[in-house]
Specification:
The structure is a homodimer. By secondary structure, chain A is of the alpha+beta class. Helix content of chain A is 35%, strand content 37%.
């Protein structure tokens, strides 16, 4: 079973990397960009075919390693 | 208008960062993970409300800066 975990910064948390990308796009002549925020995506292959078990593993993975839940949100999608 | 750009490594391209995450999850006791590949996600705010114009800007942004098209795929979703 496959899953995709998306980790994004919470609203209100400063994102200097996103700001830098926004500036770089402007200087490269890409118009119409009002804001950029960067996040991370993890494509995870799971051994189990059981949805509940997969979700439990993924939640543990996010809480323990993939996301810093103080400043980041995460979303798990099973594919 | 908002958009999400997802950049992932192409199949066959080595992902040492993903391998490291996989190892870390194993040593943290998260079971059932068979593989991890890491990518990037960009949440972009656009000034225009025109879909075609938005897609053109986003394609330019991806080709010029956000993705290395030699080793990475990108996907643009308008939200």
């Amino acid at each position: 079973m496959k899953a995709r975990v998306t980790v994004t910064l919470k609203n209100g948390v400063l994102d200097p990397q996103g700001k830098a990308i926004e500036g770089a796009l402007k200087s490269l002549g890409v118009d119409g960009i009002a804001g950029v925020r960067q996040g991370k995506v993890f494509d995870i292959e799971l051994e189990t075919a059981d949805k509940v078990q997969a979700e439990t593993s993924l939640k543990a993975a996010c809480e323990k390693l993939l996301a810093n839940t103080v400043i980041e949100n995460y979303r798990v999608e099973l594919i």
